[in-house]
Amino acid sequence: MADSAQSELQTPGRGNGLRDVYGSRFLLKLLVRKELKVRYRGSVLGIVWSYVKPGVQFIVFYVALGVFLGLEQSPTNRGGLPNYAIYLFSGIILINFFTEALGNASRSIVGNGGLIKKIYLPRQLFPVASVWVSAVHFFPQLLILAVACLFTGWHPSLIQVLAAVAGFIIVTLLATGLGLLFGAANVYFRDSENFVDMLLMIATWASPVMYSWTMVQHKLGETWYALYQVNPMTIAVETFHYAFWLPTTDGSAGIPPHLLSLWIPVGLLVSAGVLLWGQMTFRRLEGRFAQEL
User: Fold this and answer.
1) Of the candidates 100, 127, 104, which has an alpha carbon nearest to the alpha carbon of residue 184?
2) Distance, CA of 193 to CA of 104 (rounded, Å)
């Protein structure tokens, strides 16, 4: 009898990981609502700011890279990318989703320290809620991209739409996994926030958001290019280019070889591995969150 009771004991502060998030869906919904209300409390524009930032970012990059550096194809510049505005914006909204999700998730445990010290609830809820809030900002931007694509002759196939869904799943898994990892590490080492900021800066430029994959292949060669292509963000961005940008062109620009057959499965596998790593690290460290906070 005593052995049975002892076997049911669990380490204080530890739960069942992401399974608890699924079982606490109502709490997750409340946290997402709370995050949105707190973020825009006292703001005049409110959620419109989620459109202003990518809009300004798009204009700056388009003028600097598309116009001044000649990445936009024109009658006098045949070496640029056709419909560069669509190419650029389809990458920007995805990379912004990743940077916002990971940045907020990595700070979510420390930011909710007062609540964590008062009551027990599944701690994974906080990083996951941050990713959901970022998704709330992402989908309206995706709608704007789709409308812009329609005006430029967008006629995607079912495979292209499914590729975009796969790209979104890759980014979501990656952001959640890294958010769990750095969210837990940030409780013990506050330098983690600075490391995440550097990581997000690198992620913006290490993916083909503003330039073509052919430039990378030409500069790095096949061996190093294959290593570059393993980056899940690179794969996800290319799926969005394949789904939204390529159907608005004559198709001559092309996509990375084996994107559908090789790189999308690789991206899903790597992102799932990062999620598992983040979850295992989070569960190991969460037992002392209340004490450390």
Assistant:
1) 127
2) 10
Residues 57-92 pLDDT 10s: 778 877 777 777 667 766 566 666 888 888 988 999
Q: Is 72 a member of any domain?
A: yes
Per-residue tokens: 214: 């052919």
Report the alpha-carbon distance of residue 35 to residue 228 in Å, rounded.
Answer: 35
> What token pair was written down for 231?
């980056």
Residue at 16: amino acid letter: N
Q: What is the pLDDT of residues 8-49, one digit of tens each?
A: 545 555 566 677 777 777 888 888 888 877 777 766 566 676
Q: How many domains does the chain have?
A: 1
Q: How confident is the model at residue 171 (pLDDT cuts 50, 70, 90)?
A: very high
For residue 100, give its domain range. Answer: 13-292
Cα(31)–Cα(35) distance, integer angstroms:
6
**5 in any annotated domain:** no
Which is it for the CA torsion 26, 182, 93, 222, positive or negative?
A: negative
Residue 3 is assigned to a structural domain of this protein: no
Residue 4 domain flag: no
Q: How many CB atoms lie within 10 A of CB 169?
A: 17
Mean pLDDT of all residues in the chain?
83
Q: CA 22, CA 150: separation in Å to the nearest integer?
A: 37
The per-residue DSSP string of 77-129 comes to BTTSBTTHHHHHHHHHHHHHHHHHHHHHHHHHHHHTHHHHHHS---TTHHHHH
* Distance of alpha carbon 115 from alpha carbon 90, whole angstroms: 37
Question: Quick count: other Cβ atoms within 10 Å of Cβ 282?
Answer: 25
Report yes or no: 130 and 108 within 8 Å, Cβ to Cβ. yes
Alpha-carbon span 252 to 258, nearest angstrom: 16
Residues in the chain: 293
* Relative orientation angle of helices 49-61 and 84-111, to the nearest 10 degrees: 130
